[in-house]
Structures are given as C-alpha cells and as structure tokens.
Amino acid sequence: MVSAGADIAVIGMSCRFPGVPGLTEFWRLLVDGESTVAEFPEHRLADSKAPAHPDAATLMTGSFLDAIDGFDAAFFGTGAAEAAAMDPTQRLGLELAWEAVEDARVPATALAGREIDVVVSTAPSGYDLLRKLSGSDRDDHYAALGSSGALIANRISSLFDVRGMSLCADSGQSSSLVALALACDRIRSGAVEMAIAGGVHLITDPEAGISLANLGALSPDGRCFTFDDRANGFVRGEGGAIVVLKRLDLAVADGDHIYAVVRGWGVASGGASSRMPDPSPSGQAAATLTALERAAVAFGDVDYVEAHGTGTRLGDPAELAGLREVFQRTGRTRPLAIGSVKTNVGHLEPAAGIVGFVKAALCVDRSRLVPSLNFRSPNTAVADLGRDFEVVRVAQPWPGPPGRPRRAGVSAFGMGGTTAHVILEQAPEPPSAPAAAETAGTLPWVLSARSAEGLRAQAARLRAFVAADPSLSAADVAHSLVSTRTVFEHRAVVLGDGREAALAGLDLVASGRSAPRAIRGVVDGPVGPTVFVFPGQGSQWQGMGRQLYAESEVFARAIDDCARAFQPWLDWSLVDVVTGAESAAALDRIDVVQPALFAMMVSLARVWRSLGVVPDAVVGHSQGEIAAAYVCGAISLDDAARIVSVRSRAMAELTGCGGMTAVAAPLDWVRDRLARWSGRLSVAAVNGPSSVVISGEGPALDEFAELAVAEDVRARRVKVDLAGHSHYLEPLRDRLLDAIAGVTSRESAVRFYSTVTGGLFDTRGLDGAHWYANLRSMVRFGEVVEHLMGAPGTVFVEVSPHPVLQLAMAETADALATSPVLVSTLNRDDGGLFKVFGSLAELHVRGLPVDWTAACGGPRARRITLPTYPFQRQRYWLTAEDAATTPDRPAAGDGLGLDTESAALSLVCAEAAAMLSTKNPGLTQAVLTARSAQSFRDLGFDSAMVIGLRNRLAAITGLRLSATVAFTYPTPQALAEHIFSLVEPPKPDTPAEEAGFDDRADDELYALIDRGYL
Fold it and tell me: Helix or strand or coil: residue 917?
C-alpha cells in the first residue's frame, strides 16, 4: 500500500485546439497571447441546419476545429461502418490518449495487461441528432457503441489493453478536473500506479448551444472577458487534452520527464449554498482548502492560480469571492497571480478543467507565466480586485521567490455546483547527467507506421523536427525511437553516420524510396525460425575484421576470446590476421585462413546475438560446421579451436595433391558424367539445384571441364589445391582421430543440422568420428537448406565476412517457389557496423524481432520528446457517401504502368540508381538510362547488390523473378526487356529465348564459382 503522502507525477500530455495540433503549438499560442476564437467553419454547416435563433451570431462564434469528421480507422483497427457510427468525441479521445502516451515516452505495448486507470470526460456533441436525421439509428448495429460517452474511456482502455478502472466522469463543466482528481485518488491509495485522465469536447451542431444562450451564459461579443468589467459570458470551444499520471517515486526511478507534480486535490459541492446554476463561493473555497490540506502546502506558497475564469457576470465575482475566503482562512497577504486559458481557446465545458491543468503544468515546467487575454479594466463587481489579485497580462518569469518550488492551483466549476481544485508543484530536479555526446559511427533511426502513407508522413515529421533543432543529439533520437515508440507493420530504418546523412535518409523514406541507408519493408506474416548459416572457405579477405574490431566492443571481445583459445595451437597472431596487420601471417595458407574464418564467424554470431537475433537452428558448410557446433553450444570454444587447428594443419600437408571444380548443373547430370572418371573424381558438395562441386585429380578435372564446355555447362576450378571432401583425404584419418580424441559434446537447445548427414543431428554425437566425416564426406548443404525452407517465413542469416552461400540459397528458394528471408553479415565493400545494421534492418522490416538498444547511442543516450504519430485520417460521417470506406489495397504491380519497354526501363534504372546511391550518387536514373546497355558489373554492382536489385523489382512489380535474373539479363536494357515480356502477353509464334549461364558477366559471380558455391 502506498503511503498517504505519495505524490503524482505528470509524465505525458496531449492537446488539440483549432490550429493547435499539440503541446508545442499550444505553448506558442499561450506565450504569444493569441486566441483561436473565430467563426464556425462554413464547410461544416453542410451537416447542420443554419441557426434561426436571435442569438445566431453568438452561436456561430467560438473556437471551432476546422474538421471533426476525419479518423484513422485503420490505425485504431476500426471498420468503416463502426468508424462512421462513432461519435467524433470518441475518435478524438483515442487520438489524444495515444499522443499523451507517446509524449510520456512509453511504448504503448508496455502498458498492456497492467492495472492502469482511464478516467475521462465528455458531453454530447450533437452527433446523435445526425444519426437520427440520416436514418442510421434504425439499422446501425454500431449506434449504441458509437453514441455512448462512457465508451470513450472504455475504448482507450481497449486501445492500450489496460485493466484498471475505466470511467467517463460527468460533473458538468468541472468533469475533466474531477476525473483527474479521481485518478489521483486511485494512485495515492495504492490501487494503481498509473492513470490516463482528461476530457474532450466537440460541437457537431452549433445550434445545440441555444440553451446556453437562453441562459445568458454566452458572450454576444464572441470573447471571454475574464475578470474584466466587460464580462458578459463565454465562447464555446472544441478540442481536448489528456494527461498520463504516475506515482512520483516510480517516475523518478524510471527517469521519466516530469512536467509537474500533483501535490493535492479537492472536490466539493456547493450544496444548497446557492441556487443552481449560480456558482457557490463557499463550495469553491472548500475544494481549494481541501486541496491545500492534502498537499500540505500553505496558500501563501502558491504563486499562481489557473482560474475557471469563464468571464460570466456571476462566475468571475463568485470565483474571486471564493479565493478571498481562502485568503481569510489561511492568512495570505501577498497578491495572487491569476489567469484563464478560456481567453485563448474558449470554454471547452467538460474538458475545460484539463485544458487549464495542461496550461498550468506547462507554465510550472517552463518557469513562465503567460498572458490572460481580454483584460482591460477590473470587474467592478469585485471590490478592489487589484488588492488581492494580479491578472497576468504579459508573458513573464515565474513570480515566486528563488529556492522555493514553483506552485500553481487549477480550478474548475460545474454548473450543478461540483467544484474541483488541484495543486501543482515544480518537479524534483533530475539527477545530473552529462548530455549524450554525438556517437561516432553508424546509428539507426527506426520508424514504423500502420500504413505506407503513415510511414512517409512519420519520416517527414521527424525530419522537420530534427532539422529545426540543431541541438538534438542523433544518439538521443535513435535511442528514443526504439525505446518510446510502438512498432507497427510498415517499417523503415535510416542508417546514418552523421546528422546530414540521417536527414537525407529520412528524405528518402518520406518520398517512398529505399536505399542502402534507408531500408523499408512491410511485415505481412509470421517470420521465423531463424537459421544461422556458416560457410567454409571462400569468404575471407584481407583485413576482414579490422573495421568491426574498432567499432564493436562485442565483436572485439569475441575475437580476443578466440585468440586465447587458439593460443596453444598457433605460432602467429590471430588478432593480427583478422585485423589485417602488416606483420600478419599470410591469409592464403589453409592453416591460417581456417582459424581466422572460424574466429570471424563465431564473433559475428555473437554480434548478432547482442542485437537480439538468436538462432533457432544452425547449419555449417564444411569447416563452417565447427563454428555452427560452437555457436549452438554443443562444443566448447577450446575444443572448437583444437578441431580447427588440427584439421587445418593436416590439410596443409596435402596441398598440391588434387583440386576441386564448381559445376553449374544439377546433381544427376554431374553424376552421370562422373562415371567415366570413377575413382579419380567424386562429388564433394551439393550446394543447390544447379550448384555442385566435384573433387579429385587435377588432370581428370581438366578433362571433365572440357566435357562440360562441350555441353554448354559452366565448370570452373576452385582456388584450392587439394581434393577436399574426397577419398584423397583418407590418409589423415588416424592422425585426426587421435588428435581430437578428447573432444566432448553436449546436447544443444538450438537445432543442429549437419551437412554430413543432410538432416537434423543429435549434437551429443559430435565426436572425433563425426569431425573426420565432416572433412571426408560430401557436403550436403543444398539438401539441408531445401529441408529448412519447408517452413514458411524461415530466416537465413549467413554469418561470414562476405556472402558466398546467399545466391545458392536464393536459387534453392526459386526452385521451391518459396520466399525465405536471406541476409548476409559483412562484405568486402563494408566490413563495419553499417553493413551489420543494414542486414539487421532487413530482418526488422520483414518482422523478425530484433533488439536495437545496443545500436542506439549507448548508456548515455536519453529518452527525448519526439513527434507523435501522424494519423492518416479519412472522412467517416453519417451523412457521407458509402464511398467513405477504406479502399482496397492494390495488389503488387497494379498501377505501375509497365505498358511499354520504356516504362520498364525507367523502373529498372530508378531502382538501380537507388541501389547505387550510397556507392556512387552520380549514377542517377537519367545517367543509367543513357548507359542501359552496359553491364551491371561495369555500373558498379557486385553480386550481393544484384540480388538486392532483384528483390526490389520483385516486390514492386509482383513478378516472380529468379535469384539470378540480373546475371541472366546482365544490363538494365536486357533486364527491362525481360520484365516487360513477363508483363506483356507473349506474341504468338514467337519462341521465348533463354539466356545461358555464360551470359552472366559479373566477376563476383565468378568468384563465387571459384570458391565452390555455384
């Protein structure tokens, strides 16, 4: 149970008024002393009858929103029919609640399932009259849900899946401040730790205010002359505000931004002390005294009161009389500063109290008082007003003495006599902490939205926000995006190594484009399981770990751990080889490259784990199986180092005895031809449907190559000089078994797929015999991958310094007509965090859960205020046409206009330019169009980029394009012609031409073949 003295922190706020979409604009309005009062928007009168009352002009003047018919139904998961049936106050309440939680810097998902109260207020907007006039009340089964004001709170509770009290309070014009007081009572009692409170008010039909005009409550001058001698009524206002409250000690412990602290509150009734609707000074004084008592604060220590301040003939004198009673009861002698937000935004009736509360909280937070408008001469009905009160007329510093907390009171009075008063106090000073320094290197800015339009708007809004404030830390922005925002289906990750790069990436997302520094995607189904793939030799390059060793502490520690494990077995420095030091051992030695590659792969796996990407299964190709066994926890690092070292030393002794050849043909074709070289050649590896490696004697390999060429099949020698995975390695058996006899293994929770057996393997059987078989037997990688791709949504992460298996896996996917997620880790062009984060982004935008925390600015990064969600509103209104429904989303490829080869070429060149934008921004779409007859290789593409281009084009067109389509059609012109041929119906009697494998003119592809992966 919380002690009775527990205070409540205000950690999140939102508001909406005409021309004032949020807190920033509201504060500007207050400081500048401006008003939102104007005429009722003419275009909204289409849904209302023109008032024919003598007070028509009065009814048409107020603070009215330009439109109240818009709603982002898709964001809130509401169908079109239900959205149209919902009173617009319910819609506004949902939006403001979402914005308040975002302003509290809390992901909405973090609230789910918790005991959090929702207490709000509203009043009828007049929408039910339209419901009746439209006839929808007779057959609309959503009418009951749409018309109930109580359901505002219930809808908010459902939105966040919170389980506390859900209540719509109604005490007239004091409702929202009473709602806040109820929420504070619940927090202080210990019933809950957090609450959402506030109020909204909308006016569907201005004529509905006739009753207030008849009562004499509305100002015929269209102004609130609060405390002024001209006071003659108020003007009505639309909008609302919602706040997020939290127990103060928890808010401080969590490092929340605290606008102000609610120290005390009081709710009272005037009873029979006055005739309804006349205000009761004694009732108002009672609420204020109760609030002071509960706050344990002297009235003399309150510097400012945000008054109810309607500007009515009876209201202002009664309110000041009630405050003077508090003066007398407490002995206060110094004048009290007062003001009323109704002079700025009108009287929001049930939401009026919370609007004044938000204004006061901003003033306390920013140590500044703002002007109360329309005050010229004191109300003569209040004797000597200036003796006790000072109406704030200009923006000024906070008036309290130094060293004492800033304090303010907020009042709200209901027509029926229910009054509320709240005491606000300056928040405690947060612990001093150094500002986050600008982080060197790549930072990810992670965005998401419910729709493609929302994502573009989110990027544009964030770009404007960051550009307007040069003091913002990129690390703070990155950290806040991942720690305070909910993740939706439409996603983008902007990668930048500086402010300008990040802004440029936001521009790309805002315009709907992608690039290596701006990765976009949509989550369209479940993703997983995740498979870590470890290749054998072939992915190495000089200095492959240099950049990441300097950028990633996780990677550097892992490499150092490997160096210690290998120390008993090596006479050279592993760290020097990995980082490419001048004195490093030669990387072309098999007994150097295999330990170095093992260290790279397992260290990269540790980096992936630190980013939240954890394997459900592992598979290793040849030597990669040792890394897979260690990463899944089946063998220790010391044993893994022993196996790698013994194996590579033994193989070094056989160099010069045979070789290997990569053959681009199916396994059956290869086996049929191998029969003539029985005993001299054998299949060493099967990597994919048309990717086989053979092994054996050098002369026999040459003869096989001649046969393959004669049959138009590519056969290329792999850059190794021993007959791997063949009987030529059998002389190593006894020595290898003896050297690793002490190796032990254990059962792994991660599934281990062996390319020795071609399937799931019990890791308790990873003994010396298995590791000899791993060296001697055929590698059945393609078989394993084909099996793993049977699970829809499988994610394959190639954990290596350069992707060498990705293309083979893509061809397997093509053969199976499946679409797994394939990403690599590093490559020769980028061996640093930019590439790692790019691949992480590819997984994130496809829906794999990842952890961006470690990538976003480090422990000193702070949660800061960010722009709230950009709702994509459509018109939902009872008088609207049936067309006001969410349009069907076009299928991929619809509306692309690929009706000519020229249009197809424009598409290919635009996407190619986007792929090249980071590497060579000068290669624009226009330039590529002019050079469309040049090969992708000559334009600067490597094989990984070619696959990326294929992925982009397939996603945009909806066409099924093979993994090697840009090798088969190696120029933009050829690729465009191919795409157009798939869109255009084939001409009769025109045989389709098939491009052969020899048309692939990419050196990187050849390099893959050389290494035995195609």
Answer: coil
Residue entry with tokens 């990419």: 1002
518-548 confidence digits (pLDDT tens): 999 999 988 989 999 999 988 999 999 999 9
Choose among 218, 215, 196: nearest CA to 57.
218
Extended beta strands in 581-657, E state: 617-620
Query: Residue 917 — pLDDT band, cuts 50, 70, 90?
Result: confident
Output the DSSP codes for 179-194.
Answer: HHHHHHHHHHHTS-SE
Integer angstrom CA distances of residue 762 from 530, 747, 770, 773, 787: 19, 7, 11, 15, 17
How many other C-beta atoms are found inside a 10 Å radius of the C-beta of residue 175?
30
Q: How confident is the model at residue 6 (pLDDT cuts 50, 70, 90)?
A: confident
Report helix, strand or coil for 54: coil
Would you give the DSSP letter of residue 722?
Answer: B
pLDDT tens digits, one per residue of 408-444: 999 999 988 899 999 999 999 987 765 555 556 889 9
Please name every residue paired with 399 in a beta bridge, in sequence order, or none if there are none.
none
CA dist 228 and 975 (Å) reads 77
Q: Are the C-beta atoms of 167 and 154 separated by less than 8 Å?
A: no
DSSP 560-585: HHHHHHHTTT-SS-HHHHHHT-TTPP
DSSP-assigned beta bridge partners for residue 661: 694, 717
544 by DSSP, 3-state: which? coil
DSSP calls for 944-957: HHHHHHHHHHHHHH
Q: How large a percentage of the chain has pLDDT more than 90? A: 75
String of DSSP letters for 810-832: HHHHHHHT---EEE-S-BTTB-S
Task: Give the residue carrying structure tokens 């008010």.
Answer: 201
Give all strands (DSSP E) within 793-919, no chain letters.
795-798, 821-823, 874-875
Q: Is 971 left (phi over 0), alpha (psi -120 to 50) or beta?
A: beta
Average pLDDT score, the chain: 90
Task: Considering only the C-alpha atoms of the chain, give the largest distance between any 2 of them, rounded to a whole number of Å.
Answer: 118
The single residue listed with the structure tokens 């191998």 is 674
Give the span between the Cα atoms of 930 and 779, in whole angstroms.
45
**Residue where the block lists tokens 């770009």:** 463
R_g of the chain, CA atoms, integer Å = 36
What the block records as the tokens of 792 is 């829809």
Find out whether 243 and 393 touch, Cβ atoms under 8 Å.
Answer: no
Total length of the chain: 1014
355, 20 in Cβ contact below 8 A? Answer: no
| Higher per-residue confidence, 331 vs 211 | 331
CA distances for 518 relative to 446, 481, 508, angstroms: 10, 15, 7
pLDDT per residue over 239-298, tens digit each?
Answer: 999 999 999 999 999 999 999 999 999 999 988 877 777 788 999 999 999 999 999 999
The DSSP element (H or E) to which 197 belongs, if any, is strand 194-201
Place of tokens 């205010």: 209
Mean pLDDT of 145-153: 83
Structure tokens at 794: 């499988």
Sign of the Cα torsion 142, 148, 152, 153 reads: negative
Beta bridge partners of 496: 443
Amino acid type, 252: V
Residue 599 makes CB contacts below 8 A (sequence gap 6+) with 545, 558, 559, 562, 563, 566, 574, 578
Tokens matching residue 437: 């320094």
Distances from the Cα of 564 to the Cα of 235, 602, 740, 771, 963, angstroms: 78, 14, 19, 22, 41
Distance, in Å, from the CA atom of 353 to the CA atom of 424, rounded to the nearest integer, reads 13
Amino acid identity at 670: V
| Residue 1008 scores a pLDDT above 70 | no
For residues 721 and 677, what is the distance between their CA atoms, to the nearest angstrom? 19
DSSP string of 463-514, one letter each residue: HHHHHT-TT--HHHHHHHHHHSS---SEEEEEEESSHHHHHHHHHHHHTT--
Report phi then psi at 815, rounded to 5: -65, -30
| Closest by Cα among 922, 902, 945 to 515 | 945
